[in-house]
Amino acid sequence: MKGRISKIGSYAISSSIRDQHQQQPCISCTTFNILAPIYKRLSHKDQSLRESDNRAYWLGRNHRILDWLLYERSSIICLQEFWVGNEELVNLYEKRLGDAGYLSYKLGRTNNRGDGLLTAVHKDYFRVVNSRDLLFNDCGDRVAQLLHVELVPPYSQFDAHQEVLIVNTHLLFPHDSTLSIVRLQQVYKILQYVESYQKEVNLSPMPIILCGDWNGSKRGHVYKFLRSQGFVSSYDTAHRYTDSDAHKWVSHRNHRGNICAVDFIWLLNPNRYRKLLKTSWSEAVFGMFRYLLRRASLTAEEAFAFLKTDNDGDHITFMGFCETLRQLNLTGHCNGLTTKEIKDLWTQADIDGNGLLDYKEFQVMFLH
């Protein structure tokens, strides 16, 4: 039997796992968007006034954040919106976390955006085998960190060489509908990178922990994509929530003032069955496709006719497929699907490989 304890605080979620019968030592994890001072507004009237302009404000707040983190003393700490552009703040975190026994790794967003990520693991729990940085190089200048760690005694007493992969990220905020596909692409890149790293260093299947601010709820396509890959939300597991319980918890209030639940600690059991990554990716995009068609209140026949465009035959051509993606705003702009991604989707949809989609293939890929 596994007992799980999970706690939620302002902007933060922490989760721990303990074997209550064998008294296996607890491994805990905290993810926390600490709101970079360059983004924290101090006045509703003057939107240009930021906390970064007042050293006493940001320094005091970040000391309090560190007080809380060190009080919780999680084995793993994943921070987002870490102000990498301020040397004093970086030194503060490295000093206090280092004095408390943590090894910390920071990564700034591309194009000198000022903020980024910090991931720290406690030396009492882990030995760091390797660390890698993943740069998405997309419109949001987002990044991710990968830490390959190994448990140390006494936490490795049940498995002398138990290794874990830890990922920390902060996905793009969906300011408009064209950015939904970007967030899905970012998660796809993370999973591709993890998969390629495992092959590169010849790793056996191992637990994977994905932490961060995902800027999307349980109702979104990113959530469904990760679930299709076998990941479970630790907070949902702790509270026995189902995928449909999106309304039962919140993690913070975003910059628009909306209450939302977008911070997750995802766990993957290495023994759990997983679909091929490319298959899950295609299904996730087709899920977005279906959502957009249904939002337009199209019946199955109307949707098929929509994809046929001006084609008189009883089938959908590749050109018609591409045109539909453009009309649904999934392509035709810098944030859209790439040519390779479009071709991969078409290959997945064209079941018999004859270069055309008939109504039966359309039903299989788009309506299920």
Key features?
six-stranded mixed β-sheet; 34% helix; globular; Endonuclease/exonuclease/phosphatase superfamily; single chain; EF_hand_dom; endonuclease; disordered N terminus; 368 residues; 3'-5'-RNA exonuclease activity; 10 helices; alpha+beta; CCR4/nocturin_mRNA_transcr
Distance between the termini: 36 Å
Give average pLDDT, whole number.
85
Please outline the major beta sheet: 6 strands, mixed
Shape: globular
* Helical proportion, percent range: 25-40%
SS element count, helices: 10
Strand content: 15-25%
What low-confidence regions span 5 or more consecutive residues with pLDDT below 50? 1-13
- Kindly name the structural category: alpha+beta
Please give a quick description of this structure.
This protein has 368 residues and is α+β, with helices and mostly antiparallel strands.
Summarize the structure in words.
The chain has 10 helices and 14 strands. α3 runs parallel beside α4 (221-228) and α4 runs antiparallel to α6. The chain is an alpha+beta fold and 368 residues long. Residues 337-368 form the EF-hand domain. One of its GO terms (molecular function) is calcium ion binding. Pfam families: Exo_endo_phos (PF03372).
